[in-house]
Design goal:
Strand order of the largest sheet: 10-9-8-13-11-12
Number of domains: 2
Order of helices and strands: EHEEEHEHEHEHHEHHEEHEHEHE
Shape: globular
CATH architecture of the largest domain: 3-Layer(aba) Sandwich
Number of helices: 11
Distance between the termini: 22 Å
Largest sheet: 6 strands, mixed
Helix content: 25-40%
Number of strands: 13
Strand content: 15-25%
CATH topology of the largest domain: Rossmann fold
Radius of gyration: 18 Å
């Protein structure tokens, strides 16, 4: 029985990679008032960030319904195929819980739902690893072991332009405590084990970029690295240029992060999602697929 990989749009996997590896991507929802829009289908990411900055309505996010997950599993091949469904941490998003509910509509063992413990390309690299293994006809146990091994090696660091969006999201308690004294400070955060953790405080975008480079280099040798940005392609390109010397197994990619994260971090954020290499000296591959 073939194995297919399903995830959601918060994984930030480049469209061409998802298509090449036959990854089914379920779009998350962004709500502006009573209007619900599907990520990358009903609203582009640049358009989302334009509206985020221009409108007084604070957008919210939502998981697709159980029925949409069920339809996606069928589109991916269930029940003729076994499905591995990989999503953000349950403590951070309803996506995982919705996937679990949808899986109950299928025979036991047909759908395996995985809590990735990560967000954006920290999760995306796990999904890509699983999809490669599925393409190569690896057994289910091998695929799940691979995802489990990749998760702890995945790190996501980010530098935000302002505390404001993090504070008003209400999802990070420590942000409320420090925002009053750090109005001109650019916060640096790490996402780890389902939590957003304070990492550093810098005063300039230049220093934020330098710190992200330092963090990436400190974890070398690296298997994978993605440059992340929230509607700041110029900043992302500059960061990417300073990371081209890092030897990787996978090619360096750049992604504009999902609005599900953008609601909380705001525009002009930069970040990296890295997977440090458990096999030092592994030969470089020529492409993501």
């Amino acid at each position: 029985m073939p194995i297919r990989i399903v995830t959601d749009s918060t994984a930030d996997i480049p469209d061409d990679v998802a298509a090449e590896l036959r990854i089914t991507v379920i779009p998350a929802y962004i709500n502006f008032g009573t209007v619900s829009l599907r990520d990358k289908i009903d609203i582009s990411r640049p358009e989302f960030y334009r509206r985020l900055a221009a409108e007084s309505v604070i957008p919210t996010t939502a998981s697709p319904g159980v029925g949409e997950f069920e339809e996606s599993y069928r589109a991916a091949g269930a029940p003729e195929a076994t499905i591995v469904s990989i999503h953000p941490p349950a403590r951070l998003s309803a996506l995982y819980g919705t996937a679990v509910l949808a899986a109950r509509s299928f025979p036991v063992g047909q759908i395996t739902v995985v809590d990735s413990g990560q967000i954006t390309m920290g999760m995306g690299w796990q999904v890509i690893a699983a999809a490669r293994a599925a393409r190569d006809n690896a057994p289910l146990e091998t695929i799940l072991d691979l995802v489990k091994a990749t998760g702890p090696r995945s790190r996501v660091f980010a530098a935000l332009d302002t505390f404001e969006y993090l504070r008003r999201s209400g999802r990070v308690g420590w942000a409320k405590m420090v925002v009053g004294t750090l109005l001109r400070i650019k916060p640096m955060i790490e996402f780890r084990e389902g939590e957003v953790l304070p990492l550093d405080r810098v005063r300039t975008s230049h220093r934020a970029r330098a710190r992200l480079i330092e963090l990436s280099e400190s974890l070398m040798p690296l298997e994978s690295l993605a440059v992340l940005h929230s509607n700041w392609p110029e900043g992302a390109e500059e960061l990417r240029r300073h990371l081209t010397h890092v030897r990787l197994v996978d090619p360096l990619v750049t992604v504009d992060v999902t609005p599900v994260i953008g609601v909380h971090v705001g525009p002009r954020g930069l970040g990296v999602a890295v997977v440090h290499n458990a096999r030092p000296g592994a030969p470089a591959r020529g492409g993501l697929t």
